[in-house]
Description:
Layout: E1 6-12, E2 25-30, H1 36-43, E3 62-67, E4 70-74, H2 85-99, E5 105-113, H3 120-132, E6 136-141, H4 148-161, E7 170-172, H5 181-193
Parallel strand pairs: 2-4, 2-5, 5-6, 6-7
Antiparallel strand pairs: 1-3, 3-4
Amino acid sequence: MRFDKVKYEASYGTSQQLPKSEAVEIAFAGRSNVGKSSMLNKVLNRKNLARVSSVPGKTVTVNFFDCDGVKLVDLPGYGYAKVNFNEKKRWADLMEGYFNSGRNIRLVVQLTDMRHPITKDDRDMLRFLKEAGFDFIVVMTKSDKLNKTERNNRLEAIKEELAEFGEIEAIPFSAQNGEGADKIREAIEKYCTTE
């Protein structure tokens, strides 16, 4: 799979606007400000393909990218407290519409911040994915912000935090130094080629 052969396609703000699913899809989920756009840019070797914002909660649409015939889907971040009720409802409807529309979703890349234990929102999302039968991996962002001891402690702790979900791959990732980017690409390729 050519990760350099990628282009932005379109963004959708409501589930009614979502196009029919005609290709394999890899979805990227995580709370606001977890570093989804930075991770996508690093994995795809681009500077500004996915827009990085300094304001949490900025990605409010489902964004589609075509990567060598595979759709990469950047989902809006969750858990940002300053979003009003109507916006939260729109987000919930959009996510539900995306996941429940019979799409060919091969893998969900669930991002968490490596510096902190997984949040209630993260756990809720992971439970939803498991109950709905989606394959997923966990990417632990901002790994470069931890020293060796903190990092080892988090790698041990995440095993316990994810224990209820079975054998889940958790990949430390840094948008600064590229750690984990190859493993994420490998996981995407693996799930794209398995039926």
